[in-house]
Write a structure and sequence with these properties.
- With 528 residues, this protein is α/β, with parallel strands linked by helices.
- The protein has 15 helices and 18 strands.
Length: 528
């Protein structure tokens, strides 16, 4: 069965939803999302959106902070565009119904996070992502030009590879094969424009702040289709997630440190002043490595984030979600320090795009965490991610509408999905353990601190798993779990390959064999 639209959006976070709402002004939009329509990395973003709205701030300062965090790899033109178009993007979110926290005078209640020289974080208490997602989902559901397909999993992009007549020049994308998880049927979603907004890759690692859906689907599909990907060695580990067996790496927002919380060892000693002049407000890569070093040096499982010296009522009112979550584990953050550890949080690389969201495949655009726009370089500045998703999705709409007008009506005949010769996955149990093995290998050998021999060990083992998974994929009917495992395997190998190519330490990539930064040879993107 074929399902056709003018624009196909894969992913329902801030990038996918904001793109869909704007594209719907020009044509019909089909939006495909793996779970229900509010499950995304956006929904888990606590901190906020970094944007210049204060008279004490300036575009130049935000640009400089972003470039400083990016360790020499940010694209200055992309950063300049992000910062200058940011305020307009925030106003559009408010027009869609997002309710940011305000002071009594009606001005934004701005917060500060690591790497920022001033307060510029617009937020909605400590669950900004959930508030943004709530408003955008409501707006999308109310739009008659948008159809949302929940519990639908993209399998692969439609390109020349699927055509019987392959007389096309270059590589083009005309949509995707999509699994309806409920009916266990693969449909052909056709469109002249496909917008990837599938989010990140956190589930590649054993410990992550990301939800279960963050399996790197967009990066894996785009790479298999022939798109360029870049800078996948730069995985950001959030320094502070709750250390508790049942907390599932619950994120403790960086804004808590901006509010005054202090990192300490288990015996109550501060340590960040030994690693960076900004102390606890140093960039995330510095803080994560510092914590990692302290844990290894002391042989301990966690450090402490101490907020007990701060105003108790202020803590409860500014961080209600963190307060209640910790309280559910019998931890009162106003009375005792929070045990924290780093966890995989954000991928700074992704599918290579230009400033208008175009990938190296005709008709395929991308935005949000799945894309490598050049904004983040070797380390993302805190709270620039939601901003990037809004700004670059807006740019992508303009590019996609132009492309759609030039090419509409030119969709080729695409063969329907065939599972002939396959069987039901009764042997799934034989390879289902592969996901956990990959996650453990990536955590142990491709984590915060790396070494060449560790990377090779992970690569050799995951290559064996990849062959096993691909063989199984070709002979069995596709399922949600199998699709995700295939994508996790692909992205894990891409991260390892990227890390092995970069013979230096820079930003989020720290490798013991090459501990110094080498601007002469390596001040460039790693493109696969």
């Amino acid at each position: 069965m074929e399902i056709e639209s003018d624009f196909l959006v894969i992913g329902s976070g801030i990038a996918g939803l904001s793109f869909a709402l704007k594209a719907a002004r020009f044509g019909r939009v089909n939006l495909v999302t793996k779970k229900d329509n509010t499950e995304s990395n956006t929904n888990y973003a606590q901190g906020g959106i970094a944007v210049v709205v204060s008279p004490e701030d300036s575009f130049q300062r935000h640009v400089e902070d972003t470039l400083e965090a990016g360790a020499g790899l940010c694209h200055p033109d992309a950063v300049e565009m992000l910062v200058r178009e940011g305020p307009c993007g925030v106003r559009e979110l408010m027009d869609w119904g997002v309710r940011f926290s305000l002071r009594k005078a009606g001005v934004f209640d701005l917060g500060r996070e690591g790497g920022h020289s001033v307060k510029r974080i617009v937020h909605a208490a400590d669950l900004t992502g959930r508030e943004v997602e709530r408003a955008l989902v409501a707006a999308a559901k109310a739009n008659p030009n948008i159809t949302i397909f929940e519990n639908h999993q993209a399998v692969d992009l439609l390109t020349e590879h699927h055509l019987k007549d392959k007389k096309q020049d270059g590589i083009h994308c005309w949509g995707a094969y999509v699994l309806d998880e409920g009916r266990e049927v693969v449909f052909t979603f056709k469109s002249m424009v496909t917008f990837l907004a599938t989010g990140g890759v956190g589930q590649v690692y054993l410990h992550t702040t990301n939800p279960g859906i963050a399996t790197g689907d967009g990066i894996a599909m785009a790479y298999r289709a022939g798109a360029s990907v870049a800078n996948l060695e730069f995985t950001q580990f959030h320094p502070t997630t709750l250390y508790h067996p049942d907390a599932n790496s619950f994120l403790i927002s960086e804004r808590l440190r901006g509010y005054g919380a202090v990192l300490k060892t288990k015996d109550g000693r501060t340590f960040m002043e030994n690693y960076h002049p900004q102390g606890c407000l140093a960039p995330r890569d510095v803080v994560a490595r510092a914590i990692d070093n302290e844990l290894k040096k002391r042989g301990e499982d966690y450090v402490l984030l101490d907020a007990t010296h701060l105003d108790k009522e202020g803590l409860r009112s500014h961080f209600p979600t963190i307060y209640q979550k910790c309280l559910s584990y019998n931890l009162d953050v106003t009375e005792e320090p929070i045990p924290v550890v780093p966890a995989a949080h954000y991928i700074c690389g992704g599918v290579v795009t230009d400033l208008d969201g175009r990938t190296s495949i005709e008709g395929l655009f991308a935005g949000g965490e799945v894309a490598c726009t050049g904004v983040h370089g070797a380390n993302r500045l805190a709270s620039n991610s939601l901003l990037e998703a809004v700004v670059f999705s807006d740019r992508a709409v303009k590019g996609t509408v132009k492309y759609w007008k030039e090419h509409k009506g030119k969709l080729p005949l695409i063969p329907t999905w065939s599972d002939e010769g396959t069987f039901d996955p009764e042997e799934w149990v034989l390879i289902s353990h592969d996901k956990q093995e990959i996650q453990r290998l990536m955590w142990d050998y491709v984590g915060i601190v790396r070494a060449t021999h560790r990377l090779k060990r992970a690569q050799e083992r995951i290559q064996l798993i990849a062959k096993e998974v691909e063989d199984f994929y070709r002979k069995t009917r596709v399922t949600e779990g199998l699709i995700e495992l295939r994508n996790i395997t692909t992205v894990a190998l891409l991260i390892i390959e990227s890390a092995m190519r970069r013979k230096e330490s820079r930003g989020l990539h720290y490798i013991l064999d090459y501990p110094n930064t080498d601007d002469k040879y390596w001040k460039k993107d790693t493109i696969l």
